[in-house]
Amino acid sequence: MILVTGGAGFIGSHTVRALAEAGQECVLLQRRAPVVPAPLADLPVHAVQADVADLDALLAVGKQHPITGIVHLAVTLPWSDDDADPIDASARSLEGYLNIVRAAQAWGVRRIVAASTIGVYGFAKAGALAEDMPLPMGHVHAIPTFKKIFELLAGHLSDVTGVQIVNARISGTWGPGGHLPDPFFAAPSLAHAAARRGEPDLSGLVAPPHAEDALDLLYVRDTGRALALLQLTDELRHATYNVASGRATSNADVIAALRSVEPGFRCELPSAGDRPQTWLDITRLREDTGFEPRYDTATAAADYIAWLRAGNAR
Fold first, then answer.
1. What distance in Å separates the CA atoms of residue 149 and residue 131, rounded to the nearest whole number?
2. Percent of the chain beyond pLDDT 70?
């Protein structure tokens, strides 16, 4: 059985479905009520209640279910509780990560796939971003800061525990069940507006979007499948993999794809002129797992709008 922390969430639920389609039974670790969410009710899935920061509760999961692999997607970063002491919250985040490794070692798990982020590369580069590039060490935001810390810990802990810890640097991800708004890119807000044939509300973004703004955008069904492949592939030759489309997608590209599905959709973003584009090199992922994205921007837009119009929009 594969334990998926955050398995009821956005990327987690699609990872669970991909694992199930590959013949795996999954255990969802949830901090709150242990309920299998409706979108996963048709799958061989078990829900258990435990917090990764509570080692005893976490270890008890292994007494109920024979865990053979872990995909660690739960957010264990120090900002969810505004009233928490920031030092205590940071310690809890680190302890949660260490507990996952402790549990893996206790259960004899051979591999942990742990979510990292495209944000570790920073924002001042252009062209393809490969896993062996030097990373900027300055602090900009808690997410890339803690993910870089976890990646460094992964290398050390893999050496001393015998558990293979694989860092999955996940690119911008959109699709069914995603965040609205996503504060970092406009695609989800644009898709929701196209589905309801309305004007997009882009006020929730951290910066005003422009037509030329681009990033490596991966449809969540592909993200889940890539993470499942990283967990299930017999041999991985690297400790870190980009989980991405391998191409840059601009807001203008997204709008054009949405218009191909909903011709009446109108959104005119201001132009910022030519901007350097970056994307993640997925050569490692392709070579070691055979992964290829199944959704380009047009097919992703069509699938997402169909899902939203089926009554799934919030």
1. 16
2. 96
Q: Which domain holds residue 122?
A: 2-172+218-243
Question: DSSP per residue over 248-261, as a string?
Answer: -EEHHHHHHHHHHH
CB 94 within 8 A of CB 147: no
Is 198 in the same domain as 91? no
Which residue, among 62, 67, 46, has the nearest Cα to 111 in the 3D structure? 67
Burial pattern 259-272, b for ≥16 Cβ within 10 A else e, equals: eebbeebebebeee
List alpha helices for the chain, DSSP H. 10-21, 55-64, 86-107, 142-161, 187-195, 220-232, 251-261, 283-289, 297-307
Clarify whether residues 138 and 271 are in a common domain. Answer: no
More confident residue, 161 or 272: 161
Q: Read off the CATH number of the domain in which 123 is found.
A: 3.40.50.720
* Closest of 124, 257, 272 to residue 210, by C-alpha: 272
Q: Is 164 left (phi over 0), alpha (psi -120 to 50) or beta?
A: beta
On whether both 198 and 225 belong to a single domain, the answer is no
pLDDT in tens, 7-30: 999 999 999 999 999 999 999 999
Q: Do 159 and 190 share a domain, yes or no?
A: no
Element holding 166 (H helix, E strand): strand 164-170
Q: 300, exposed or middle or buried, with CB in 10 Å at 0-12, 13-18, 19+?
A: buried
Segment 180-186 long-range contacts (CB within 8 Å, at least 24 positions apart): 180/314, 181/205, 185/209, 185/213, 185/215, 185/217, 186/213, 186/251, 186/254, 186/269
Residues 94 and 142: beta-carbon distance below 8 Å: no
72 phi/psi in degrees, rounded to 5: -100, 100
Is residue 25 domain-shared with residue 62, that is, in the same domain?
yes
pTM above 0.90, yes or no: yes
